[in-house]
Design brief:
alpha/beta; TIM Barrel; ten-stranded mixed sheet; 12 strands
Length: 251
């Protein structure tokens, strides 16, 4: 499998913010988000960085591809059983479904719950791994903010809705929408409507963008509160949660 890094930290966004998490970051992504803080994960990585000791600086490097045995060895070395979750993240992890089918059950057997962070577009790949996942955290991408690798714009609503129907087979599902100053009101309303058509009770996170790369400003607090009020007319569990790891200076 192609990996970027393995490290111990806390979850920095969503409803499980602050919870101890072991991150396994896979290489490769087929989207281009204007605020992406990890563009080094877009191509396949030549090497994988592995943190040596939980809670301490220092790492070692492995050449890609990395074997399942090497991942499990690294996870044990970082006290994987002491974490509530192991996050399979990226890049886009579902671009490597064979790797996930091996990783997810093997890591789950070591103790933590499996938390999949995904852009929510790889429907067939999710179908092949969802039985091994405890939490699906999917982004609902807005065409006003996101392009495909080819430069082609969305909309992404149809495929996101299909993805969400598959994701509901997992024990827990979270939907996240990153809101930027460019986010289109009509597109947001359509997203909320599509989510409600699948399950209005799902937690939906409105995440004000953390300024990075091409995005220089975050939405005002009044804007986020207005959007939350509007979304709550369609959805039962709307939360405004910013990213916390940039504030803490942790990964």
């Amino acid at each position: 499998m192609n990996l970027v890094e393995i490290f111990s930290s806390v979850q920095g966004e969503g409803p499980h913010v602050g919870v101890g998490t072991l991150f396994v970051r896979l290489g490769g992504c087929d989207l281009r988000c204007g605020w992406c803080d990890s563009p080094h994960t877009w191509p396949a990585a030549r090497e994988c960085r592995i943190q040596r000791v939980r809670g301490a600086e220092g790492s070692r490097m492995l050449e890609n591809p990395v074997s399942l045995e090497a991942v499990l060895e690294a996870a044990r070395g970082l006290e994987v059983a002491a974490h509530r979750f192991v996050s399979l993240t990226g890049g886009e992890p579902l671009l490597q479904p064979d790797a996930l089918r091996a990783l997810a059950p093997a890591l789950r057997a070591l103790g933590p719950r499996v938390y999949l962070e995904t852009h929510g577009l790889a429907v067939e790949a999710l179908e092949s791994v969802v039985e091994h996942v405890d939490v699906v955290s999917m982004d609902w991408k807005l065409a006003s903010d996101v392009r495909r690798e080819s430069g082609e714009p969305g909309p992404f609503h149809d495929i996101h809705q299909r993805f969400l129907r598959v994701a509901r087979r997992a024990p827990e599902v979270v939907v996240k929408l990153v809101v930027t100053p460019a986010s289109d009101d009509e597109e947001l309303e359509e997203a909320w409507s599509r989510i409600a058509a699948v399950d209005a009770g799902l937690p939906v996170i409105l995440q004000p963008v953390t300024p990075f790369a091409r995005v220089r400003q975050r939405p005002a607090a009044a804007r986020m509160l207005e959007l939350a009020a509007r979304a709550s007319r369609m959805l039962d569990d709307v939360r405004v949660i910013p990213q916390t790891h940039p504030l803490l200076g942790v990964r």
